Every structure is written in structure tokens, then in C-alpha cells.
Amino acid sequence: MQLAIDIGNTNIHIGIFEEDILRSTHTVGSGSLHQTNFTKILTPAIFFKTQAVILASVNPQAEACVIEYLGKHSPVQPCRIGKEIPIPMPILTESPEMVGIDRLVNAIAAFERTKNPAIVVDAGTAITIDGINEKGAFLGGIIAPGIGMSLKALHHATALLPLVSISKPKNVFGKNTEEAIRSGIFWGTVGMIHQVIDMMSNEMKCQPPVIVTGGDASVLAPELPVATTVLPYLTLEGIHLAYKINIASLLPY
């Protein structure tokens, strides 16, 4: 059994893999790390059966807390993607070491599923849209504010605009301030994703499958007809795959 831990800016996702199958998942908030949260999920019985603990993090502060907890309770030394575990794919960017680990493990999982060029939309705290070529190399992509971040920025940067929740608007024309904000953020985000996918497809000279993941995937995907698959736990899959590929490369023939 392996534990895959995805440490994000908003949430920490924990996946328990057995025989390459994601058996269960758990989520705790990155900003409210308490030992009791992990104690309820990562029990002594889980640690007893665990062969590997693999981390992917874009949040150094939360990562330090998780590693401290694992050091006290896990008999298995955690391995970090991009450090103890190399990224098992070519990264065709100017500074590969600066690319977010979450984007890379998403790309690994997407190519494993498609075996073809692909585009990954990760709609979380930030929205990233990345491309993978026919050889499984990471091409780069875009980073934009996520829906929640855009709503908060609009609220905090203005004197009178309220903080609203997000949902699909009934109409494009907002008839009050809340509706106008909701429509602007929702349809603006949908339009941005559509446009970027079209432009990436043109540069890639193909119409690759699109995989959508992240916390807002279920809200956005119905408005993206090019989205062939919604995979909420793509990042956990990629963490597990990066570990599996590296372990396989170390086995004697």
C-alpha cells in the first residue's frame, strides 16, 4: 500500500493506493493543520500496511507540518516528488525546476491515460492549463487566478462589491450586483479556458483530449464541450505514477 499526499494551497488530499488502485481519498484544509485531522485519517493500522509515502507540494509551510507529523508517526520515510523522486518526463520549459510539481504530476497522469498529446485544465486555487506532446513531454502552459481567488480579489480591491458564491448564472445579463459579479467571473473564466485550449490546440497542430481536474472542475466542465474527461484525483494518480515509474527503473532486469 502507498500513501500519495497532494499538498496544495487550499487543501491537502490524501490518496491510499493498493495494487495501483486508488482505494480511498481524504481531504483536510491546508490552512488549518491540526494533528487530530491526520490522526483520524492516518491511523496506526494504515501506517502498519504502508510501503511508501509520496508527497507532492506547492505549499512549503503546509509541507513542513505534514513532514513533521509523518516523522513522528510514520515508520516509512516520506519521499518528495521532484526531490527524492525525480520527475519521469521531459520538461520543455526555460526553467524546469520552477514548474509547479502539481502541474507536472498532472501531466504524467494525463499522458499515462491518453498515450497521446493532451491538455490538462486544473481548476483550483489557481487555474493552470498545460500541454503534453506526443512523446509525453511537458510543453508548459498558463497560470491564471482561480474562481475563488478572482471573487476575493474583486471584493477586497473594491469598496462596495460583495463577496459572492459561485454557480452557473441563469443569464449573462446580471440584474443586480451579485448576479453581475457571478456572471462576470463564471463566464469570463469559461471563455478564458475555451480560448486558451483553442490557441494551444493550434500550436500543437492537433485537437488533443482535454482532462479537467481540481476543486472547480465539476462547475466548469459542463461548459467546456472539448473536455473529454473529468478526473478529480488526477494529481494523486500522477504522484503514484511518478513513484511507480521510478521504482520500476531501479529494479534489476
UniProtKB/TrEMBL annotation:
Query: What CDD domains has UniProt attached to this entry?
Result: ASKHA_NBD_PanK-III
Describe the reaction catalysed, as an equation: (R)-pantothenate + ATP = (R)-4'-phosphopantothenate + ADP + H(+)
Query: Where along the chain is substrate bound?
Result: G100, I101, D102, R103, T177
Q: What is its EC number?
A: 2.7.1.33
Cofactor (UniProt): K(+); NH4(+)
Question: Where in the cell is the protein located?
Answer: Cytoplasm
Question: Where, in this chain's numbering, is ATP bound?
Answer: D6, I7, G8, N9, T10, N11, I12, H13, T125
Q: How is the cofactor bound?
A: A monovalent cation. Ammonium or potassium.
Q: Does the keyword DNA-binding apply?
A: no
UniProt-recorded Gene Ontology molecular function terms: ATP binding; metal ion binding; pantothenate kinase activity
Give the InterPro entries listed for this entry: ATPase_NBD (IPR043129), Type_III_PanK (IPR004619)
* Active site: residue positions: D102
Chief location of this protein?
A: cytoplasm
A biological process term (GO) from this entry: coenzyme A biosynthetic process
Arranged from A to Z, the UniProt key words for this protein are: ATP-binding, Coenzyme A biosynthesis, Cytoplasm, Kinase, Metal-binding, Nucleotide-binding, Potassium, Transferase
User: Where does this protein act, in terms of pathway?
Assistant: Cofactor biosynthesis; coenzyme A biosynthesis; CoA from (R)-pantothenate: step 1/5
- The record lists K(+) as bound by D122
Family (UniProt): Belongs to the type III pantothenate kinase family.
Subunit annotation: Homodimer.
Looking up PANTHER family in the UniProt record yields: TYPE III PANTOTHENATE KINASE (PTHR34265)
The free-text function statement in the UniProt record for this protein reads:
Catalyzes the phosphorylation of pantothenate (Pan), the first step in CoA biosynthesis.
Q: Write down the HAMAP family for this protein, in alphabetical order.
A: Pantothen_kinase_3
Q: What is this protein called?
A: Type III pantothenate kinase
Q: What lineage is this protein's organism placed in?
A: Bacteria, Pseudomonadati, Planctomycetota, Candidatus Brocadiia, Candidatus Brocadiales
